[in-house]
Amino acid sequence: MNLSKNKKSLTLILLSALLTLTGINEAKAQVPSIPRKNRTTTQRSKRNYSNNIVWGTQYDWLSTRYVTYDDICEMDRGQVRVLKNSIYARHGRRFKDSELREYFNSQTWYNPWRNEVPAREFNKYENYNITFLHRYE
Fold first, then answer.
1. Per residue of the chain (137 residues), what is the pLDDT tens digit?
2. What is the spatial distance between Cα 62 and Cα 103, in angstroms, rounded to a whole number?
3. Smallest Cα–Cα separation from 68: which of 80, 86, 55?
């Protein structure tokens, strides 16, 4: 039984390494770690709202598929933190944390309008991705 588990684990590790080495990491987002910069614009772009969520951002994929380890294996904790919180930000959440607030305020699509997002508003991908990313944050 343990031998079978070890073979499965080794297979997963080798497959992950192969995908990484061959550059097949699908949808590697260019996600910054939370920058410390001043907001340069006060004008917000036109947003596409659907069910209280903003579309047309670099984070849309977090609402349409599951995050995998390959998506985040080369990211630092700050980048994973941005990914996770971008799901909340796209739903209009205000952030108490000054770094998150500053980062998302610098995004033209961000429109904070509530303190919490009801869990029922997240789709199956977002719920899974929040939990998955929280483990690596």
1. 555 656 665 555 554 544 444 443 444 445 665 543 343 433 444 444 456 788 888 999 999 999 999 999 999 999 999 999 999 999 999 999 999 999 999 999 999 999 999 999 999 999 999 999 999 98
2. 18
3. 80
Whether 21 is in a domain gets the answer no
d(C-alpha 37, C-alpha 57), whole Å: 20
Domain that holds residue 85: 29-136
**Whether pTM exceeds 0.85:** no
What CATH number should be reported for the domain holding residue 55? 1.20.58.1690
For 3, 17, 64, 69, 117, the CA distances from 7, given in Å and listed in that order, are 6, 15, 31, 19, 42
